[in-house]
Amino acid sequence: MELRFYKQQDLALIEQYQLREEQLRYTAMPGECIELSKTDVHRLPVLAIEDERLVTFFVLDKGKGPKAYTSNEDTILIRAFSTDYRYQGFGYAKKALSLLPAFVCSHFQDTKEIILAVNVKNTIAQGLYKKCGYMDHGERRMGKKGELIIMSYPLSVS
After folding, report:
1. Could you give a GO molecular-function term held by this entry (predicted)?
2. Which superfamily is assigned to 2-154 in CATH?
3. Whose CA is closest to 75, among 62, 56, 84?
4. pTM
5. Would the N or C end of the chain have less CB density within 10 A of its end CB?
């Protein structure tokens, strides 16, 4: 699997990406995220590619996004994490999350922590994040779609 930043030539992959209605309760379509990134340079769409297929998508936010959840300036926020429903159950989300710390460290050397906000009702995602080393320190916020659990992953300082 390869993690890479979105480029205009990836548009066909984005247009083919499919989410089910139940997934859309907790996340946004990649196309919407890319539109938002055009007006916010701190929102960076990331594609997880397996065998030339876009299997997982998310946005890294180094701008105002993390400030809603932490006062730590050295933090990056994962937004809109999803896996195309046709590829769920194959371990792609877990693999993408396992590659993410090295990806973040190589592109954002000053970053010491990755954070995310997950809906309290999205227990499947919570379990995935915990398996991948994200910790719940009891921090909660209200979001547009309900209560959110703030989870964090500390990055090693070398």
Report:
1. acyltransferase activity, transferring groups other than amino-acyl groups
2. Gcn5-related N-acetyltransferase (GNAT) (3.40.630.30)
3. 62
4. 0.94
5. C
For 11, residues 6+ apart whose C-beta sits below 8 A from its C-beta are none
Judge whether 55 and 87 are in contact, CB under 8 Å.
yes
Q: In what order do the strands lie in the sheet with 135-143?
A: 2-5, 43-50, 53-61, 75-83, 113-119, 146-154, 135-143
User: Which pair of structure tokens corresponds to residue 41?
Assistant: 């340079």
Nearest-10 Cα torsion for 70, 148, 153, 138: 80
Residue pLDDT, tens place only, 110-156: 999 999 999 999 999 999 999 999 999 999 999 888 899 999 999 97
